[in-house]
Amino acid sequence: MNFYKFAIYLFRGFCKIFFRYEIIGAENIPKEGNLVIASNHKSNFDPVFLAASILNREIAAVAKKELFDIKILGFILKKLNVIPINRDKPDVSTVKNILKAIKNGYVLGIFPEGKRIKGNEFGDAKAGLALFAIKSKADVVPISIISNYKIFSKAVVYMGEPISLEQYYGKKLSNEEYEKISQEILDVIKDNYFKYSK
């Protein structure tokens, strides 16, 4: 068993022991094909909840590069396929690394808002989600994480149906257009969040 699989089983055990952890829609994660998963981000538990929810694929997540400044954390993140990114201005090499990861069969994990937005509020989506999905010709699975993040409370990971962005393949899009497409996906995440929070 490699380090990634070992960590995922630890994450899943943690979720089941300390939360009433429920996954809905796992069948929406295909076993193969280019794929991006996009989720709301309200807590530092979110990456753990997400990673623990997918057992049939390996995730390559995107995280702010500052996390890699902490040596031991940076080492662990690299072992978990996490790709560092400058959230304000991603460079070309980072974009290439992300697209390469998708091409190599990893599921790209991304938070469209680019940072944590606590409570029931949602932020604005960044261009990255749509850019990476369209450039790699990947479907996007919108994921809503619903929890108050208190130990022993319920945590639901709701996976919606894959969204195809095929109509945008090969088109030259502006940053504003990428943001608009990302926002449309975030709106689906938001709608499911409130729908299943009831």
From TrEMBL:
Catalyzed reactions per annotation: a 1-acyl-sn-glycero-3-phosphate + an acyl-CoA = a 1,2-diacyl-sn-glycero-3-phosphate + CoA
Assigned keywords, A-Z: Acyltransferase, Lipid biosynthesis, Lipid metabolism, Phospholipid biosynthesis, Phospholipid metabolism, Transferase
Organism, as annotated: Metaclostridioides mangenotii
EC number(s) stated in the UniProt entry for this protein: 2.3.1.51
SUPFAM superfamilies, alphabetized: Glycerol-3-phosphate (1)-acyltransferase (SSF69593)
Domain notes: The HXXXXD motif is essential for acyltransferase activity and may constitute the binding site for the phosphate moiety of the glycerol-3-phosphate.
A GO MF label: 1-acylglycerol-3-phosphate O-acyltransferase activity
This protein's name: 1-acyl-sn-glycerol-3-phosphate acyltransferase
